[in-house]
Batch of 2 targets.
Target 1
Amino acid sequence: MCGMRKTGQENGLLGACLLIMRIEVPRKAEKIIDALQEHGYDAYVVGGCVRDSLLHRSPADWDITTSATPAEVKKIFPRTVDTGIQHGTVTVLIEKEGFEVTTYRIDGEYEDSRHPKEVIFTPDLKEDLRRRDFTINAMAYNHRTGLVDIFGGVEDLKNKVVRCVGDPGERFTEDALRILRAVRFSAQLGFSIEEKTAGAARELGETLEKISAERIQTELVKLLVSPHPQYLKKAWELGLTKIFLWEFDKAMETPQENPHHCYNVGEHTLKAMEAVKADRILRLTLLFHDLGKVETRTRDEEGIDHFHGHPAQSEKIARIVLKRLRFDNDTINKVGKLVYWHECPWQAAPRSVRRALSKTGTELFPLLLEVRRGDIMAQSTYHRKEKLEWLDRLGEIYEEILRKKECVSIKDLAVSGRDLIQAGMKPGKEIGETLDRFLDIVLENPEKNTKEYLLSLL
């Protein structure tokens, strides 16, 4: 995506390290930059898109920074949206695609650990880059100048390290969410956190209490669906999870002296998340699936730990935490149900799987099998081969049930409440009870799911 070489030149305006290199900027973003430059303004792509390009990744967004004020940007482009005008951001629409264009700015004093009291526009790119969170996000690029890297972002990319721009204490005091963002970027990129940055995160971690639950949720999910969800342990080591996910801290202190396990509850949780694909529902389910073990742990006379009833307790915790972090109801219900049934205590037999499907639904059952597989892979090797064979057989039976279109819910029954009323039953509670009995019969014997047979039972 790019090649580069250092020059010996110093740019007088920036006093910065400039690299001559080539990043493939999308045509529409390049068109915006060219238009701004033609009108006498500076303009660059900036931040995450530059970082990702240098890492040979495909950027999700291409943000542009410029010396032009929002009013001047709006004069140049006929179609704009005032998406963050008070912070200098205007979205420029090019062929129905939007690009955020933000004026160089200096942030004023921060009073709430999140938002500056005022924003001051500046003509100086260096001052704009200086206010950004991490060196790897504080680089800018255009085809005329090349790469502008004032704070050593390229070097930190090379060394795979997340480092604050300037004083990390100041950066985290300005915006406490940056503390969690440091861990999130570390997980997404597989980077370490620079020593002073980590120290400031540990020292100022409690300021995360000032951050809204929605913003915490966003960063947590990005961390969990990253290539390294186990980096949640870094958040724990820095004392961050005790602010927003203290249930996990308790799990990191709960042993599992049991032949089926070789890690404590927290470490097992990290390994389980790592063992499944980067799916939001799967990773959240495995984050919560065993947290109920903290309160259900008992030890027998032989020194073996048991956790009877932990799935129900884990579901309770999952629903409490997800609501606390303002997750939507669909996510809460899916994760709650998967956590409750995650142990899959069913026999590898058609009748047993049909009953399981009647409880979980056909949509969630494949996810449930993946949850169980991740759980098994994070356990000890004790009976692992047999567990995986059992799981594979469950999957085969599930596919067979779908292929045969066997009844696993009341809506799949050959009769409905209307049929029962037409057969002479009075509307009311008895209708539902009768359909439940019919379903119980059909789950045992799917061939009995015929209108004629079921009505004959009346």
Target 2
Amino acid sequence: MNTIQNQAQQETVLSHASAPESVENNLQVLSDKIIRRGNLPHVTVDEQLKILNELTTFELGRFLIQNRGLNGYWTDQILMHPLKKLETTLASTEKPLGTLEKFILDKAPTVLATQERFEIFRTEIQKRVQNGIILASVPCGLMSDLLTLDYSHANEKSLYGVDVDSQSLHQAAQLAKAYKLSDDTNFFEGDAWNFSLPSPVDVLTSNGLNIYEPDENRVVDLYRQFYHNIKPGGVLITSFLTPPPLSGLPTEWNMQSIDPADLRLQRVLFVDILSATWQAYTSTEQTTQQLKDAGFKNIEVIPGKSGMFPTVIAKRELVTSAEG
């Protein structure tokens, strides 16, 4: 019935600032940092300042300056961009896409990897849609991973969305209404590490939260919370960000599929200038072990073309005598 229920013990939003500084204040802070640091081996001060200034010319860029991360709305805009095939800016002014905005949406390697991952998610979830299905998205953002699926053969279904960001939940509720799924959808405002659903689910999908959490034990706790909200025989569909080159860690990136110039500009923009908050990297081996520690079995990894943002499908085994 598309209600939004509040659950206690909420935590701070990890992906973006809850009360960000103004664009002007953060712009000055970032400019001062760039100048104070001086030229880097791969980029000059002047080029960084030019890129920073261009970020101020479009809405997504200004949001990144303020927050160094993405909220539900901007994540959804980026993920849905290939489907919408937008040629105009994501701002209300409807200006043509600028060079840097177009780069972020259409060329930045990590963005391309997560757009591909989003389609893998939708494909894997769609395979499991049947009458009586119960699905959850945690954190849900605008919940396009579930709301955009084909439910024509599922007359009975329940969709649950959990997010700590009340604004994302209200936008998701509006989107559910637009897709005529309000009667099948409920939202819960609360912490992904401590939430409860009306019933265990067949599929729980989660993208993007673990890449903001550097504490491995906290990530295992997150997966364990997911495990307890999934039916025996159900699955978790999640993802993780593998270490990039030059991180000091072994990389799984398929460098043959990545344009070096695009990779350099992405590094300058998101690492050198913005120090983006989504930099909690884990390997396939680490992620598999974390999921096993949380109780999952039968773990399948879909690396994607670049190996940057793999999808993981982890199954909760059917109840055994030991589990009762």
